[in-house]
Amino acid sequence: QLISPDATTQYAAVDTPAVFVDGALTRATISLDLPPDVPALTAAKLFIEPRYGNAVTYTPVVRDVVLNRPPAAQQNPDAQTLDLQFGAEITLDSYYAEVRDDALQLTLYWQAQSVPDEDYQVFVHVVDSAGEIVAQDDGSPVDNRYPMSQWRAQTLIEDQHVLSLDGLPFGESYRMRVGAYRSADVTRLAITPKNANVDDNSVWLYTFER
């Protein structure tokens, strides 16, 4: 069965007969049909459990999943091409940024060569002329709703970030940088190829004035 993380909603469930052969590893393919009204990028937990006997036991939670993952994103025609490699699996293909409505509007276009085995976090920093971070956004891509371990390989992911600039002094110049890191130890993923904009395993993408 598929249920919500707080266990209040069941999205799908199915009963399937179990077939076992003594001393042999068996495999079963099970399909669950989702209701049509499940929103895109819905977090869920997948459970497998014996219903009618106790001869076999399972780990209750098989894994966390994301339901209704979107198809490949359509890139903004004005996006700036980057083609930067983050670690061994992830590419920052391009980005689009603008300052509008007293906020920095940023769209990152990611792609994974293979499904990442970790949920790396993305950080966006706005830095002033003194080198101080004056605005930032950290978390999993797509507003914390699309962990990297749930990505499809070779599929363009649109990851939007909005950073408020309210209260920042006018007449100043600001720069914006992006990076990714491991949650466990906050180690940043190495970025390649190195260029003038890559610094301390982050990349400077955008400069603007207030």
Explain how this protein is built.
With 210 residues, the protein is mostly beta strands. The protein has 2 domains: 1-68, no CATH class; 80-209, Distorted Sandwich (Coagulation Factor XIII, Chain A, domain 1). It has one helix at residues 141-144, and strands at 2-3, 10-12, 42-47, 61-67, 80-86, 90-100, 103-112, 121-127, 133-139, 157-164, 173-181, 191-192, 198-199, 202-209. The strands form 3 sheets. A 5-stranded antiparallel β-sheet has the order 10-7-6-5-12. It has a 5-stranded antiparallel β-sheet with strand order 9-8-11-14-13. The radius of gyration is 21 Å and the shape is elongated.
Q: What is shown here, in short?
A:
With about 210 residues, the chain is mainly β.
Write a concise keyword list for the protein shown above.
mainly beta; elongated; 42% strand; 2% helix; 210 residues; five-stranded antiparallel β-sheet; Coagulation Factor XIII, Chain A, domain 1
Q: What are the secondary-structure elements, in order, as H or E?
A: EEEEEEEEEHEEEEE
CATH architecture group name of the largest domain: Distorted Sandwich
- Our count of domains comes out at 2
Number of strands: 14
User: Quick check: average pLDDT?
Assistant: 91
Query: Which fold name corresponds to the CATH topology of the largest domain?
Result: Coagulation Factor XIII, Chain A, domain 1
Structural class: mainly beta
Distance linking N and C termini? 51 Å
Strand content: 35-45%
Rg, Cα atoms, Å: 21 Å
**Neighbour order of strands in the largest sheet:** 10-7-6-5-12
> Major β-sheet, in short?
5 strands, antiparallel
At the first level of CATH, what is the class of the largest domain? Mainly Beta
Classified in CATH, the superfamily of the largest domain is abc- transporter (atp binding component) like domain
Helix content estimate: under 10%
Number of distinct helices: 1
| Approximate shape | elongated
